[in-house]
């Protein structure tokens, strides 16, 4: 058990620093423990009382005691055995032990002192004697503790001062290295980095510093040098590839670069003058350089350069710690120089890539211009051929072979026209010249038009098209004509790459947010390596020498780009060659249901009427003549003109009712001719534009110039004649209120 001291102040002289000592009292008799407590509690210390040797040993393991009072005669483990075990413990090996006994002879006393006892006290004890003896040992213990605390405080103070000085030095070192990193990385220009490096060390940390570039990608052989002026003031920095250090200096630089270790200028070359390092400034004084070290700048396996530092003859800076600091700076410089190398290479790469990109853009632009020009230039001969076919169809005998030949020529002409339109559309999309005219459209009507477009191809190949879509109108915001192109191109692709007499499925699934159109076939499929680039321009699978499928590889490209312009996407799936393919178009809906209005007829009633005076204006003689011949066969009076000015002259004499006018005319273009005809009193004329330019902007420009209709070459004869009949019907209809 442990007994705390009585309440009240402890004796001031016995407790230095206010610390209390622990006193261990060991006796098997409770009444004796009570006596000891009464006698010793006046000392104001911590009294720990136990009744056996085992309990005493347990307490010693837990705390340190100033003195131990030990009864000799105890049952079980007596006092001597307990003392022996106490002395074997490191903490209590030198703790004073006072034996308390009722009987002591010389043998017993000698044994006690041999165990390290400091005193024997016979029982019954004299309180003053016991209190005095125990108080002496307590005072000695407390004074020893105070001396230890003072020693610890002095050691702590010395350690604190050393740590503070080390911390201050580390702070200065860290601040210098941080400033060095900032200065070295301030610019990615290698010349700036070299000058910053040598300026960091001179004049505060070295008399002279030189950096030499060893990497060919950074300009091997370049130097930057900084040297302390004769007055010991600021450094003067020089840069260039024409500096000429002494041979011994160059040997040290090259050795450091080769060995990747610090190299020293040979003792035989020492002492060196500052000018021996190659600095061109003559105002460097005559003070000799005592030590010159070349430190390689390392970054991984590369050695961008070498840093050479030199101390003055009376300088003591080239200690191990200073050389370590130079190594730290060299490491940072190596990283900064590597960044400069990467930046320089990147700059070269950027210039090369920009040049290559510019060349590619120019080549792409030339390609687009060529395709656009090719498509446009093909329209005139195609228009002539198309009109010639229509003339033959009207005048030739109805012989089966003639009909077959004309149908064949018509199909091939339409195929050429479709390919030409696809080429032109892809070019326009690439140049950003196509804009969508989105209006509410019924997707069912769009699908019907798409199916009608490929009907002849499907019929010629005896393929069966299955269409599954909702019966109710499917309203969505889209450009109907362009969306028709998307679906028709997918159907055309499925028919072209599927064997004859095979089924093709078209399925439309609709929800409130989107529309999904799927075209599935059982054709030749798509190879795995072709799938990622199937939508690339001109991308096609392997073909035989017969090229039986035909095409240029632009239809899918056009379909994907038009779908993306609608905010949608096209995905393709195929299990491989001869396993068919599936194209899925997903489009946002963004439209509300509305009642379907019956489509109006632009052609008007197809009825015969009186012949008209028609002026055909085209700089392509064949196109003008074939169109004129076809119209003459319909009973109309025809005149032709080959350029804009001739058209105005003929119109003034001929007084036509209808003018079929090409846009791209020499001397005066079709827009200007139309404006002048309208301004000259031709308000009742039917002005029809026949041109190779068919974009929305072209149609708008034609209407703004005064045209009534706009046709893209080659024009269907029936459509042109229907336009004339419709105009004639409107002119003949009674006006409102007449």
TrEMBL record:
Q: Which residues form a coiled coil?
A: 343-373
EC assignment: the record states 2.7.13.3
Q: Which UniProt keywords apply?
A: Coiled coil, Kinase, Phosphoprotein, Transferase
Q: What lineage does UniProt assign to this protein's organism? A: Bacteria, Pseudomonadati, Pseudomonadota, Betaproteobacteria, Burkholderiales
Enzyme type, top EC level = transferase
Protein name (record): histidine kinase
Originating species: Variovorax ginsengisoli
This protein's record includes keyword Phosphoprotein: yes
Recorded catalytic activity of this chain's protein: ATP + protein L-histidine = ADP + protein N-phospho-L-histidine
Positions of the Histidine kinase domain: 373-591
Matching Pfam families, A to Z?
Answer: GAF_2, HATPase_c, HisKA, Response_reg
- At which residues is 4-aspartylphosphate found? 71, 662
SMART domains from the UniProt entry: GAF, HATPase_c, HisKA, REC
Domain Response regulatory: from-to ranges: 22-138, 613-728
Q: Could you tell me which InterPro entries the record lists for this protein? A: CheY-like_superfamily (IPR011006), GAF (IPR003018), GAF-like_dom_sf (IPR029016), HATPase_C_sf (IPR036890), HATPase_dom (IPR003594), His_kinase_dom (IPR005467), HisK_dim/P_dom (IPR003661), HisK_dim/P_sf (IPR036097)
């Amino acid at each position: 058990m442990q007994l705390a001291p009585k309440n009240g102040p402890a004796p001031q002289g016995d407790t230095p620093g206010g610390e209390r000592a622990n006193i261990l009292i060991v006796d098997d008799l409770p009444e004796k423990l009570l006596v000891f407590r009464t006698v010793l509690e006046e000392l104001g210390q911590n009294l720990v009382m136990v009744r056996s040797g085992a309990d005493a040993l347990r307490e010693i393991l837990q705390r340190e005691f100033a003195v131990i009072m030990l009864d000799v005669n105890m049952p079980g483990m007596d006092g001597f055995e307990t003392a022996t075990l106490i002395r074997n413990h490191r903490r209590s090996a030198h703790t004073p032990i006072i034996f308390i006994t009722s009987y002591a002879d010389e043998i017993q006393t000698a044994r006690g002192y041999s165990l390290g006892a400091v005193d024997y006290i016979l029982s019954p004890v004299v309180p003053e004697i016991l209190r005095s003896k125990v108080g002496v040992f307590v005072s000695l213990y407390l004074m020893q503790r105070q001396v230890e605390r003072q020693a610890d405080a002095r050691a702590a103070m010395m350690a604190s001062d050393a740590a503070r000085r080390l911390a201050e030095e580390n702070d200065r070192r860290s601040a210098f290295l941080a400033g060095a990193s900032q200065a070295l990385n301030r610019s990615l220009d290698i010349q700036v980095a070299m000058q910053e490096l040598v300026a960091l060390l001179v004049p505060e940390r070295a008399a002279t510093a030189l950096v030499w570039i060893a990497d060919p990608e950074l300009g091997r052989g370049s130097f930057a040098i900084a040297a302390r002026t004769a007055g010991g003031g600021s450094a003067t920095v020089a840069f260039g590839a024409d500096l000429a250090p002494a041979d011994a200096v160059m040997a040290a630089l090259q050795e450091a670069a080769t060995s990747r270790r610090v190299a020293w200028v040979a003792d035989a070359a020492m002492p060196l003058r500052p000018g021996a390092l190659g600095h061109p400034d003559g105002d460097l004084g005559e003070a000799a350089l005592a030590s010159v070290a070349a430190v390689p700048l390392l970054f991984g396996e590369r050695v961008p350069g070498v840093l050479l530092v030199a101390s003055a003859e009376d300088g003591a800076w080239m200690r191990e710690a200073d050389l370590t600091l130079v190594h730290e700076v060299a490491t940072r410089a190596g990283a900064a120089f590597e960044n400069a190398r990467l930046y320089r290479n990147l700059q070269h790469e950027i210039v090369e890539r920009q040049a290559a990109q510019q060349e590619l853009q120019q080549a792409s632009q030339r390609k687009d211009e060529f395709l656009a020009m090719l498509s446009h230039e093909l329209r005139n001969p195609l228009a002539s051929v198309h009109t010639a076919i229509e003339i033959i169809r009207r005048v030739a005998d109805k012989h089966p072979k003639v009909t077959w030949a004309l149908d064949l020529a018509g199909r091939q002409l339409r195929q050429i026209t479709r390919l030409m339109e696809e080429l032109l559309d892809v070019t326009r999309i690439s140049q950003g010249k196509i804009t969508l005219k989105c209006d509410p459209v019924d997707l069912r009507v769009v699908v019907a038009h798409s199916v009608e477009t490929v009907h002849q191809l499907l019929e010629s190949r005896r393929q069966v098209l299955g269409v599954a879509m909702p019966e109710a109108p499917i309203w969505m915001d889209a450009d109907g004509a362009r969306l028709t192109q998307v679906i028709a191109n997918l159907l055309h692709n499925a028919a072209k790459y599927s064997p004859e007499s095979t089924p093709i499925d078209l399925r439309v699934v609709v929800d409130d947010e989107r529309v999904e159109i799927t075209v599935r076939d059982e054709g030749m499929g798509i190879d795995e390596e072709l799938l990622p680039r199937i939508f690339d321009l001109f991308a096609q699978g392997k073909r035989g020498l017969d090229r039986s499928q035909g095409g240029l590889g632009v239809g899918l490209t056009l379909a994907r780009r038009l779908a993306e312009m609608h905010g949608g996407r096209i995905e393709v799936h195929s299990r491989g060659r001869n396993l068919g393919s599936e194209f899925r178009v997903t489009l946002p809906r963004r439209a509300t249901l509305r009642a379907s209005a019956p489509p109006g007829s632009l052609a008007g009633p197809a009825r015969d009427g009186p012949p008209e005076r028609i002026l055909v204006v085209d700089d392509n003689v064949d196109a003008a003549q074939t169109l004129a011949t076809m119209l003459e066969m319909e009973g109309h009076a025809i005149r032709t003109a080959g350029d804009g000015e001739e058209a105005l002259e003929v119109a003034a004499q001929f007084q036509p009712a209808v003018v079929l006018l090409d846009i791209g005319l020499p001397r005066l273009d079709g827009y200007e001719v139309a404006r002048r005809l309208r301004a000259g009193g031709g308000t009742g004329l039917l002005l029809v534009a026949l041109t190779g330019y068919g974009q929305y902007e072209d149609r708008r420009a034609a209407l703004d110039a005064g045209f009534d209709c706009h046709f893209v070459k080659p024009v269907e004869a029936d459509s042109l004649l229907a336009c004339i009949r419709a105009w004639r019907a409107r002119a003949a209809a009674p006006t409102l209120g007449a």
